[in-house]
Amino acid sequence: MSSLEERDVGVAVAPSSSSAGLGVGAVGAAVEAVAGVAAMQEDVGIRREGPEPDPDEPPKKRVKIPEGESGKLEERLYSVLCCTVCLDLPKASVYQCTNGHLMCAGCFIHLLADSRLKEEQATCPNCRCEISKNLCCRNLAVEKAVSELPTECTFCLKQFPRSSLERHQKEECQDRVTFLSSVIYSLRERLL
After folding, report:
1. Using one digit for the tens of pLDDT, what is the confidence trace for 126-138?
2. 75 or 119: whose pLDDT is higher?
3. Can you say whether residue 24 is alpha, beta or left, with left for phi > 0 and alpha for psi between -120 and 50 degrees?
4. Strand pairing of 159-161 and 137-138?
5. Which of 81, 120, 140, 163 is deepest in the core (most CB within 10 A)?
6. CA-to-CA distance for 42 and 93, rounded, in angstroms?
């Protein structure tokens, strides 16, 4: 791999598409996410490949990110996409309040259960707006973004997208602990 990493950037919106069926929070969160990525690209100093683009031509969809600067972008994405309650990256579903604050499924259900036990209305921990299964919606864009963020294999220490890490660790990793390897290890310890 070269010292530059190639990534796709761009958002396409059909001229006839509407936001019908999406909550105001979902649309607002999507707009904020796009604006945030653009701001991060400027901060990181993403430069387009080749000569300066002609203003009359449509923008290119591929940009080059220097390897040393991609880590900083990934760290910032971790902080933007984390759950506002537990501050971890969600492992499954991501819910958002009407103002777009993100919660992992575990925290969302926990907030609803706690409020039900107290016989109170559940509220978002960030903005205190009411939350419920009817008022909140899943944020599929964040779920997909989180699944593509790199994470480290605990056995071989290589980086993989979060969506493929479990398969790698269970089936593909040469350094994973298996029954046979644990037996060999214990036998070796006995002989030494």
Report:
1. 999 999 999 999 9
2. 119
3. alpha
4. unpaired
5. 81
6. 30
> Which pLDDT tens digit goes with each residue over 153-184?
988 999 989 888 888 888 888 888 776 666 67
Between 176 and 11, where is the model more confident?
Answer: 176
Higher pLDDT pick, 88 / 74: 88
pTM: 0.54
Beta bridge partners of 104: 94
Contact 29, 52 (CB under 8 A): no
Cβ–Cβ under 8 Å, residues 84 and 99? no
Question: Which long-range contacts does 78-86 make (Cβ < 8 Å, 24+ apart)?
Answer: 78/149, 80/33, 80/36, 81/142, 81/145, 81/146, 81/149, 83/107, 84/124, 84/125, 84/126, 85/110, 85/111, 85/125
Q: For residue 90, what are its two tokens?
A: 């969600």
Ramachandran angles phi, psi of 150, nearest 5°: -75, 145
